[in-house]
Design a protein that fits this description.
The protein is of the alpha+beta class. It is about 55% helix and about 15% strand.
Length: about 550
């Protein structure tokens, strides 16, 4: 029994001695960034607390002052939940920070969240920088405001009792923080919505219910961002341990990033609603088609940047992401050159605007109405209602005849009269057609041509060249119909026949046989009456169409 007790005491004593020897074996090392930061943090741990050794990382101060600075640096890091991963700290004695235009022998521990705290090389050793030491008092006051010391002094002994390794006063502080945050949230939400409405009114004074609804939703995450900022400011004052602070601040940063993503997504929606309202007042419908494309682009951009920010919060190296994205983007671009060309073609179409939505265009072999311009292709509906998908890269290179930009629709045709038509009726027919063109409500009366232009293989050619006022294809066809019907009626009244390709065989006529040639009436009074009759009918028929 005594022997076992002796062995147990010997084992305990040996372990204590070994631990003390291990402590003593760890010496102050300032040879590189890793050694300096490790020295500082190790000698301020509860089981290896030697502040004098930790103070060696501070240069140019008395021992007492250096100890105070070293302790404050650690408390600020712990209060902000900044856990130092020593495996990522460089061990190179000549490590250079290459951020900026000049290279320095320095290492910033948390370049994004706490860039003020870093170590630098002075001589052959590494110390906390003079800037860090100069700013640490202010950083400490910002992290632990003056009222914390006052509260600590009035907390009774019972308030320091622990439950689940958390003191009671910390539980009370958490409860008060949540209550205060909720009250501030309700107030800030109304204030944010009021300010957003004022800004919207300054930008666009018209009332838009969709924009107001989006602004109301936008006020919610903005107020939450305000609450996150308050918690981020106040939470270190509760003086929790590093582990709790690390998880809490990670959650706060994730929430902050998510809220910002939501805010920017809603801002994109608000801007697109205002832009959509603006495009509705413009003549061009291509701008209307641009709205969903721009909306999708900026929405995707916000989501990608948001995901990029979230990855950095989890310790993913931003340089690696950028390099991977660059190489991956290059590989994708090389593998999908046609897609890239189409995207560039889309950009060129929206910049040059060679056509608008619902324009009638001729693009190579495709003729039809533009219905939609997408990221990759443009949809054109032909007259037979079939839809053509033309790649934007090809559409931006070929010649486009945009008939939708014409001031008028030109119509040109030839009317063929029989070769045996008398000159008087030819003149009367030409005059009558001119009068019909002038009386037509859909043709330009100041620009037209109706002339006897030549001799065809089987007919005397009367050229009819007119311009229709409406650019709509359907209205043009209706206008042609009215013009054609009026010309046919005129020819009937005048007794003029239209020719067609034929071969005439002339034989000697016998006295008792009648000839096959038509009998023409060239009485001037009858011709004038015929023209007036046709014009009167043409002017009075279809009064609804004449107002188009």
């Amino acid at each position: 029994m005594m022997r076992n007790l002796f062995l147990f005491l010997f084992f305990i004593t040996s372990s204590l001695v070994a631990q003390e020897q291990e402590k003593d074996s760890i010496k102050v090392n300032l040879s590189n960034p890793h050694a300096t930061i490790y020295t500082h943090l190790y000698f301020l741990q509860s089981d290896s607390y030697e502040p004098k050794k930790a103070a060696k990382t501070i240069l140019g101060f008395s021992e007492e002052k250096a100890i105070e600075k070293a302790i404050k640096i650690k408390k600020v890091l712990d209060g902000k939940g900044l856990y130092v991963d020593l495996n990522k700290v460089p061990t190179n004695n000549n490590f250079k920070d290459t951020i900026g235009y000049t290279s320095y022998y320095r290492y910033v521990i948390f370049p994004e969240r706490m860039p003020e705290i870093y170590v630098e090389k002075i001589g052959d050793k590494w110390y906390y920088s003079s800037e860090t030491v100069a700013k640490i008092d202010n950083l400490y006051k910002e992290t632990f405001p003056w009222y914390i010391q006052k509260l600590q002094s009035i907390i009774p002994i019972a308030g320091h009792k622990e439950f689940l390794e958390i003191e009671l006063w910390q539980f009370v502080g958490l409860l008060l923080l949540f209550v205060l945050s909720y009250i501030v949230f309700l107030i800030s939400k109304k204030i944010a919505f009021f300010i957003l409405q004022k800004i919207k009114y300054l930008v666009n004074k018209t009332t838009n219910l969709k924009v107001d609804a989006v602004l109301k939703k936008l006020a919610h995450p903005i107020s939450l961002l305000f609450i996150v900022a308050i918690i981020d400011k106040v939470f270190p004052s509760l003086q929790f341990g590093l582990e709790i602070n690390t998880w809490v601040f990670l959650a706060l940063n994730i929430a902050k990033t998510v809220f910002w993503i939501y805010v920017f997504l809603k801002l994109v929606k608000v801007i697109m609603e205002i832009y959509s309202e603006f495009t509705e007042r413009t003549h061009s419908r291509l701008d209307d088609q641009l709205v969903p494309i721009v909306n999708n682009f900026f929405t995707g951009l916000v989501i990608v940047l948001g995901i990029f920010k979230l990855l950095t919060l989890f310790g993913v190296n931003t340089t690696t992401i950028l390099a991977g994205a660059t190489i991956g983007g290059l590989a994708v671009a090389l593998a999908s050159q046609d897609t890239v060309k189409n995207l560039i073609g889309t950009l060129m179409i929206f910049l040059d605007k060679p056509f608008h939505i619902e324009d009638w265009i001729e693009a190579g072999e495709v003729v039809g109405t533009v219905e939609k311009v997408g990221f990759r292709s443009t949809s054109v509906r032909a007259a037979d209602t079939s839809v053509y998908k033309i790649p934007n890269s090809k559409l931006s290179e070929i010649v486009i005849n945009n008939k939708g930009l014409r001031l008028f629709r030109r119509y040109n045709t030839n009317l063929g009269l029989r070769y045996d038509t008398p000159p008087e009726l030819i003149e009367a027919f030409v005059k009558g057609v001119r009068e019909i063109v002038i009386a037509h409500p859909e043709t330009r009366s100041d620009s037209y041509n109706v002339e006897f232009t030549g001799f065809g293989d089987s007919a005397l050619l009367i050229m009819v060249n007119v311009y229709f006022k409406s650019l709509a294809w359907g209205v043009e066809q209706s206008s042609k119909h009215r013009l054609h019907i009026a010309i046919v009626k005129l020819a009937k009244e005048l007794g003029v026949d239209f020719a067609f390709p034929s071969t005439t065989v002339t034989i000697e006529q016998f006295p008792e046989k009648n000839g096959l040639l038509p009998k023409y009436n060239t009485d001037k009074e009858r011709i004038a009456n015929s023209i007036e009759k046709v014009l009167a009918e043409f002017t009075n028929e279809n009064p609804i169409e004449s107002n188009n």
